[in-house]
Amino acid sequence: MIKINEHFLKLQTSYLFSTIARRVNEFQQQHPDTEIIKMGIGDATRALPAACVAAFHAAVDEMAADATFRGYGPEQGYPFLREKIAENDYHGRNVDISPDEIFISDGAKCDTGNFQEILATDIVFAVPDPVYPVYVDTNVMAGRTGSFENGRYQNIVYLECTKKTHFIPDLPETPVDLIYLCFPNNPTGATISKADLAKWVDYARENRALILFDAAYEAFIKDETLPHSIYEIDGAREVAVEFRSFSKTAGFTGTRCAFTVVPKDCNAYDSMGNRQSLHALWNRRHSTKFNGVSYPVQRSAEAIYSHAGKQQVAEIIDYYMKNAALIRREMDALGRDCVGGENSPYIWIDAGGDSWSLFDSLLNNAGVVCTPGAGFGTCGNQYIRLSAFNSYENVQNAMTRIKTALK
Ligand code: MLT
Fold first, then answer.
1. Half-sphere exposure of 75 (CA within 13 A, CB side)
2. Which residue among 23, 84, 253, 388 is buried most deeply as judged by most CB within 10 Å?
């Protein structure tokens, strides 16, 4: 008899953003004349940078001729892209990461979800609350948690991120082996200083723990005192894996390209307490289960690092950050407590009550989609998240509608 992985039965019925999409579609069917403004999921709305489009076209032309056609590429990514990343994202910040420590992939969602696979199932792991649901759900699937009770899974150490903690997690009170951190944070938009991040690196070194650091939103940092990479912290190479993405940086949400950095001196331990290289294990997993991102997409991503590409990306980021500033200003003016929007495209707003109620009210009365904070954890119950990924005109329009609806 074929049997299922019963850990899947512990999951909530559907993935957060799928639930929201279903509710929005139902509303649209009932109200076909409402022009809905979507500020829920953080999905890019601006076109790919011109430099990326030109590189994409040129690479497609290469694929169209036998002489320049490419079949399977290296699973870890083409050297041309890995070298550009190491040079620009790391060496440019005096961070020591070599190209062969960079693994190109089709998304940070997959990488943050998949990485736990190379770790033991009986480890103790900690996540911030609120949290990007992928970190939690993939560990539920792997069997690292108990059942879901009162909004939380058993056997997870939840690190509460509230107004009191400035939306930054405190070190855990009980020992943990694996820690997920995301800065600039999804969903709250909060940031972490180098000094606070150093406390986590020290904790991981002292406890032989591992940090999975999601830096998908680093390109939105405006305050240059903030770390773009966990490797800006001394000792992090030994205890941290970093995830980055071109999705939000350069509009690759539909094109798909991201990367994971696994330093060669980052280890975990086998049951005998012997060190094992995470780089070697991830390389083994990646080359077995993944066949690389397509050549034209990698050429397109490489173009982000050209002179023109850098300027175009900066312009796109500034555009979204102008939206973020507008949302933040308007929410402040409405007297709502907010965080984020200054070094991040997300604004985390006090809902003044239940987050799904405000979600429904904004959808019904303003035709605006937000993300209810409850979908990110119990500490999000009283918050909503607005995303700055939209046109400036739509954001202006949404702010006017929200102000009217909330009056
Ligand atoms: C979000 O809105 O939180 C993100 O777009 C989700 C994702 O990147 O998968």
1. 10
2. 388
Separation of CA 344 and ligand 1 centre (Å): 13
Q: What is the three-class DSSP state of 126?
A: strand
With a cut of 70, list the residues of the chain below it in pLDDT.
none
Q: How far apart are CA 348 and CA 346, in angstroms?
A: 7
| Closest protein CA for atom 5 of ligand 1 | 42
**Separation of 16 CA from ligand 1 center, angstroms?**
10
Parallel, antiparallel, or unpaired for β 156-160 and 258-261?
unpaired
Same CATH fold assignment for domains 6-47+308-406 and 53-306: no
Residue 373 tokens read as 């904070």
Per-residue model confidence (pLDDT) at position 144: 98
pLDDT at 162: 97
Mutate to test the pocket of ligand 1, among 15, 19, 41, 246 (most ligand atoms within 8 A of CB): 41
- Phi, psi of 201, rounded to the nearest 5 degrees: -65, -45
**Shortest-distance atom of ligand 1 to CA 187:** 3
**Which pLDDT does position 13 carry in this prediction?**
73
* Residues with C-beta less than 6 Å from any ligand 1 atom: 41-43, 109, 186
State how far the alpha carbon of 14 is from the alpha carbons of 229, 328, 371, in Å.
Answer: 32, 30, 15
- Alpha carbon of 238 to ligand 1 centroid (Å): 28
Q: How far does residue 42's CA lie from ligand 1's centre (Å)?
A: 5
The domain ranges of the chain are 6-47+308-406, 53-306
State the distance from the centre of ligand 1 to the C-alpha of 247, rounded, in angstroms: 9
Model's pTM, two decimal places?
Answer: 0.97
Q: Could you say which of 2.70.210.12, 3.40.50.620, 3.40.640.10, 3.30.565.10 is the CATH number of the domain covering 53-306?
A: 3.40.640.10
Q: Residue 14's pLDDT is what? A: 77
